[in-house]
Design brief:
This protein is α+β, with helices and mostly antiparallel strands. It contains 10 helices and 10 strands. A 5-stranded mixed β-barrel has the order 1-2-3-5-4. It has a 3-stranded antiparallel β-sheet with strand order 8-9-10, with no helix packed on it. The chain has a two-stranded antiparallel sheet with strand order 6-7. It is elongated. It starts with 14 loop residues before the first strand and ends in a 7-residue tail after the last strand.
Length: 325
Amino acid sequence: MLEDGHIFLRELQPGPLHGVYLVQDAKALTARNGKPYLALTLKDRSGSVSAKRWDSAADDVQLARPGDYLEVQGEVELYRNAPQVVIAHMRRPEPEAILRDAFEVLPAWDPADLLAEVRQILETLPDEDYRAIAAAYLADEAFMARFEIGPAARQMHHPYRYGLLEHVHSVMKLGGALCDHYTWIDRSLVLLGLFLHDSGKVVELTGEEVVNYSFEGELLGHITIGINMLDRKLQALPEFPPAKGVHLKHIILSHHGEQEFGSPKPPMTAEAQVVHTIEMLDAKMNAFLREQAEAPEQTDALGGLRWSKLLKRRIVTRPPAAPEA
C-alpha cells in the first residue's frame, strides 16, 4: 500500500475495496439469466485482477474503456483461489485522485544508457552495408522515439514502457556473445537482425501502461510492418547489395521460428536460427521473471508451483525458503 492509501492489486484480500485502477481489458457479455454484465481486467503497477460488474448499463460500457482510469467500489472475493473484484459502483475518477506512482513502473536501469549501447553496437558493425541500414533507422526520429519508449508485446514479454528497448538491448548483448563463440557466422547480420526483428512493433502496438494493437497492427502484424519498413529503407539505398537485403528480410520473417507462431518461413540460415533462438529465450526469461511476483497455487517445503498462462505450463514461482539455522 502507498502512503496515500492506494491498495496494490497484488495485495488484495477478501473484503471491501475502494480505489482507482487502470482498465486493461473490458468485455460486455451476457449472463446465463440473460442480463448484461462487464468482465474487466483492472491493473496497477503491481499486476492485474479480474473484475465483474453485474447488471451493467450502457453508461458502464462507456466508462470502462481499455486504457482509461476507473474508480471502483465493491468487494474482493476469492474465485478459483484467486481474488476477483465484484464492482458495486464505478465512475470516472477526478484527475487529482489518479496516483501516477501506483501505475508507472520505473525500470531499474537508465533507458538512455541502454539506448546508447544499442547505438554503439550498430555504429560499429563490421559490415559497411549493414552499417548503412542501421544508420537509416537511427536517423529516423519517429521510429527511434517509439522504439525507445514502446512495449515489446501486449502480454507475452516486456509488455510495458521501455519494454522494446530492454528486449532488443538484451538480445543484442546475447547475440554478441554467440557471435564470439560461433565465429564463422555473419556478426553484422545477426546484430542488425536482432535490432530489427521486432521493428514493426513501433507501429503495431500503442500505449505503455495499457498496451493495445493499432488498426494497422491488427490487420498486418509486426512482421509484415517490419518488412515494409525495411523495404522503404532499402529503396533509399539503391547501391545496397540485393542479396544482403534478402538475408535481412529473412531474419524478420523467420524470427518466430514456425508458421504456428506467426513466421511465414522457418529459419533457413545460421544467422536466422541464432536470432530466433535468442529472441525466444529472452522472451520466455522475461515471462519467467514476471511470474515470480505471482503467488503460488501449491506450496510445500521444497517451494511453490503455479500455472502460467504466459508459458502454458506449471512453473516454480518462488525459490525454496532458506532453512533455519
